[in-house]
Amino acid sequence: MEKTAMTPEERRRKKKKILRERRGKVYIKVTCVFLFFIVVIFVANLISGDKSFSESENRVLAQKPEFSLSSLISGDFMSDMEDYVADQFVLRDQWISLKLFEDMALGKRESNGVYIGKQDTLLEIPDEPNTQSLENNLNAIREFSQRHVDINTVMTLVPNAAYICDQLRPNNAPVRDQSQDIANARAVVGDSLNFVDLVDTMSSHKTEYIYYKTDHHWTSLGAKYAFDALCPALGITDPVIEYDVYPVSTTFSGTLASKSGYHKAEDTIEIYVAKDVNTDCVVNYIDEQRKTASIYDSTALDQKDHYEVFFGGNFSRVDISTPNEQNKNLLLLKDSYANCFVQFLLPYYRNIIMVDPRYYYDDLDLLIESNGITDILFLYNVNTFMTDTSLAAALEAAPQDENASDGTQSQPAAEGESQSSDSGQTDSAGDESGSAESGTESGEGQSESSGAESDTSEVQSETGA
Questions:
Q1: Which of 254, 312, 361, 400 could crosslink 421 through cysteines, CB 3.0-4.6 Å?
Q2: Which residues touch 337 (CB under 8 Å, ≥6 apart)?
Q3: DSSP character for 310?
């Protein structure tokens, strides 16, 4: 029997049917692959478990939030869950790099809050200020300085690379005016302290290697230029001119590289050692109850964040004693920008007490009194300072003792007694043996040169880089 020839309409319908069947098979295969991918990712996330810290980004990761009806209604639970999923997602760094590759193919020069600048330079985009916290911090600094008018108090805010190095920004990339932020801060603290504006200093060296390419910190060279500008305010009249410069890492890849997924550059970390000056010291990590004979931690060079070669990172309080004969003791209130800055301060102070208010809960007024502080320096980078939420609380005056009959503040505890904070942390004064080891005399709170030298010999074996 001969087949009846199909009409054009029948051919068209048959062709459409075949195409639909083929499309359906493709859709089924794609769906199966997608579902398989979802299952693999889900299982991988379960197996990998939650991580508490990202070494590549040098920050604490979000943890699984606890469910409650109130947090669900307020929206906090969903917001926290979103942060948790984003931080704990398996192969997170690889996905960030893949996203960056796609964005750059489309001409985009920003990734996860980081500008991909010229010459393979990464620039952290400054955040918008936390207005209320900023106001509280500046008012607290002014009141704190007014309580200590007899102490030379200096403040500076370091502008960030994205603002200073405008020649490296992507074309037409907007950046917050940090010089105006600095001017506003200076206006609020007023003449309660000596404010040093570093914008001109840093701008005059913007073509030099004063900021890392892959990290949000400044380099040791940038810190040195800032130190030179701060010397008059700190009362340093004859600063060291010559230094031995040692590169301790040439393969540093910082937090901005990890955050953005851009890994085409590496940085060099240098340390500066003053020539013909005794820079021996004893470094006492108070809460950690350990001592070293160097401000450098060479073990950091075997980890991801090589910038932690300076002190090994951030700590609530670190005391540095030197054999310096000058009766000068510095309280340094700081963020991580100060970690590489301290190397330039060593020749000029008998004691340097570094306090990071983000982790410190004890009485700063008592600390000043019991350690014979002669100078105070506030040193922050602008971006951190504009978003900081901890400084004001750390600077508050301790409440007066209600049981005191004359209405005055209770007397500070005797040297050697433990001062406990609300969080249960032990005060840096420590016990009697701790005070003796740090070379701090009861009553004066100042290390004798011989004591510092003795401590240095005791911990020589712990010397860092």
A1: 361
A2: 158, 217, 218, 223, 379, 380, 381, 384
A3: B
Q: Say how far apart CA 303 and CA 301 lie, in whole Å.
A: 5
Task: List all residues 6 or more positions away from 430 whose beta carbon is below 8 Å from its beta carbon.
Answer: 286, 289, 416, 418, 438
Q: Are 283 and 312 in contact (CB under 8 A)?
A: no
For 87, residues 6+ apart whose C-beta sits below 8 A from its C-beta are 51, 54, 61, 62
Name residue 350's amino acid.
R
pLDDT-derived band of residue 369, with 50, 70 and 90 as boundaries? very high
252 close to 265: Cβ distance less than 8 angstroms: no
- Residue 81 φ/ψ, nearest 5 degrees: -65, -35
Q: Can you give the pTM of this predicted structure?
A: 0.71
Q: Which residues contact 384 (CB under 8 A, 6 or more apart)?
A: 335, 336, 337
Closest CA to 313 of 293, 276, 340, 286: 340
User: How far is Cα 38 from Cα 44, in angstroms, rounded to an integer?
Assistant: 10
Instruction: Centre a 10 Å sphere on the Cβ of residue 220 and count the other Cβ atoms it contains.
Output: 25
Highest mean pLDDT among 96-100, 103-107, 276-280: 276-280
Give the N- to C-terminal CA distance of the chain in Å, as an integer: 95
Cβ atoms within 10 Å of 136's Cβ, excluding its own: 18
What single string gives the DSSP state of each residue in 27-52? HHHHHHHHHHHHHHHHHHHHHH---S
Question: What's the chain's Rg over C-alpha atoms?
Answer: 28
Q: How many alpha carbons lie under 13 Å from residue 349 in its C-beta half-sphere?
A: 28
Contact 447, 435 (CB under 8 A): no
- Count of residues in the chain: 465
pLDDT tens digits, 219-273? 999 999 999 999 999 999 999 989 999 999 999 999 999 888 889 999 999 999 9
Two structure tokens written together for 12: 């068209």
- How many angstroms separate the CA atoms of 187 and 206, rounded? 26
- Write out the two tokens for 119: 């010459």
Closest CA to 125 of 92, 98, 161, 97: 161
Contact assessment for residue 453 and residue 323, using Cβ atoms and an 8 Å cutoff: yes
